[in-house]
Task: structure prediction
Amino acid sequence: MGPCHRQNDWVKMPETREEDLQFDLAIVEGDILVSEDRLAVKSLWPENEGVTSIPYKINDYLVDRKETILAAFKLISDQTCIRFHEYTNEMNYIEFISGTGCASYVGFQGGAQSVYFGRACNVGNLCHELMHALGLHHEHTRPDRDQYVTIQWDNVVPGKENNFKVKKGDTQDLPYDYDSIMHYGTYYFSSNRNPTIHSKKRGVQIGQRNHLSPLDITRLNKLYQCE
Result:
């Protein structure tokens, strides 16, 4: 496969296991262990003495990318009560592994939980994956999404339609967020260079991977009951 593309390009590398289980042999074993029908899963990372601080380990092949990983952490920890610290001997932790693209489980799995971090993936791509690991699904799969966007099914790569299907679940009573770091871009998984997602609201940009939107921050803080 080619490299990750900018948000306005017509194809992209898979960012999550839901998007393409075939992209890397290391994760084809099988199993999305968290149900896909929830937007904010209830399998949250546990607190320790009132603090949610997630241990992490970096694979030897990625030690030169530690600054990028720390920058992705910072996007989250600067705006929420969620923290990250280097692994010592904890039972549950995130392990960053080199892969073809960017990929993550959704929600807390227990044990060593892999997050795949390909060379072409940047800070924003990795932050997107960490949001998945914390328990969030894609914004464009919300149950109410058809009020806000239209999926152009004829333009979707055959076999990738599931990436655009609505997932039943908890929206946390928060508004739809075009600016979410969890939203697909206009041309994601296009088969013909035409848009796969059309925004019903004029003038909005979708698919950014630069920052947490205000609603992303609210969503995480609500999910993890941050003060």
Q: What stands out?
A: Residues 1-10, 17-37 have pLDDT under 50 and may be disordered.
